[in-house]
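Field reference: sequence -> structure
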Amino acid sequence: MDVYKLIQDKKAQGKKQLAVLIDPDKTNDKTIARIAELSAESGVDYFFVGGSLLINNQLEECIKVLKQSGDIPVILFPGNTLQMSWKADAILFLSLISGRNAEMLIGRHVISAPYLKLSPLEVISTGYMLIESGKPTAVSYMSNSSPIPHDKDDIAICTAMAGEMLGMKLIFMDAGSGAVNPVSVEMISHVKSSIDIPLIIGGGIRTPQQASDAAKAGADVLVIGNLIEKSPELIPELVKAIQQ
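Structure field:
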């Protein structure tokens, strides 16, 4: 399975894509199975798996349950170097280009590179950008970095362009789990018009309308986690909303 080619092909077709984010620390097998079932029925494009911490050692069990639902690609969205498993299909190799913490830019990548070189995982280099969302989030605390201010579109544009020029295959703008506000449609639109690689948007999306607005503004892939964890029955509505 060539996951990156799949993302590119759907982008080229103008198809907006939905990734369901599952944090193994926050969900049990029963909930994961329900989410997976609804996702398969509704046409969800990807499962993202990861979190700021993994305290229950449920990563591989989570992936196993998701895999039983069908052929939706399972992509690791790691919060640290311990959140890796060969059972997934791909991994977002995240470089925190919005911050100035060398560990998150390249340091931890050096540690994980030998493991990934030996693994069957498809490694997708991703320029990861934290966007200020109205309150401190777990990812900003754990990464020890400041997010880009929510109204500084120019900084976001230049950061995304630099990521693309450095060879990143994806740009991921994230307001963070539990964000008060999602990434603004203005920032999404401006960044989208400045890069050619696929744009992923996540964090703070609480309604199908917000998902639709982000998709129309230019997001190629929408990532939604907390909303779906609380209300899995919204999955069909979310898929429909971003494709309108």
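Note: Strands lie at 17-22, 46-49, 74-76, 90-96, 122-130, 170-174, 199-202, 221-224.
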